[in-house]
Amino acid sequence: MPESRSKGLLRITLVRSPIGYAEDQKRTVRALGLRRMRHTVEKTDSPVIRGMIYKVRHLVKVEE
C-alpha cells in the first residue's frame, strides 16, 4: 500500500530565483507553493500541475 501513496507525486524544488522574470512566472512559482530558494513541495501529478511546471521549467527541478 505505501507504493500507491507515493505514486503520482511530484517533488518540485525551486533552484533559480524568479526575480527578473515575467510576473506571470513569479505567480506560477507561488501558486506551486514555492516560497524561497531550495524550497521543496510535493504535488499530485496532474495535467494542471504539469502545465505549471512546464511554464517555469527553467526555475525548478522535478523528481517523480
Offer a concise description of the structure.
With 64 residues, the protein is an alpha+beta fold. It contains three helices and three strands; from the N terminus they run αβαβαβ.
Low-confidence stretches: none
Main pleated-sheet profile: 3 strands, antiparallel
Fraction of residues in H or I helices = 25-40%
Give the SSE order as H and E letters.
HEHEHE
Number of helices: 3
Walk across the major sheet and give the strand order. Answer: 2-1-3
What is the approximate shape?
globular
Output the structural class: alpha+beta
Could you give the count of β-strands? 3
Rg is: 12 Å
* Nearest-integer average pLDDT: 92
N/C terminus separation: 18 Å
Beta-strand percentage range:
15-25%
Structural description of this entry:
With 64 residues, the protein is an alpha+beta fold. It is 36% helix and 23% strand. It has a 3-stranded antiparallel sheet with strand order 2-1-3, with no helix packed on it. The radius of gyration is 12 Å and the shape is globular. It starts with a helix and ends with a strand.
Which descriptors apply to this entry?
single chain, 64 residues, alpha+beta, three-stranded antiparallel β-sheet
SSE blueprint:
Blueprint: H1 2-6, E1 9-14, H2 23-31, E2 40-44, H3 47-55, E3 60-63
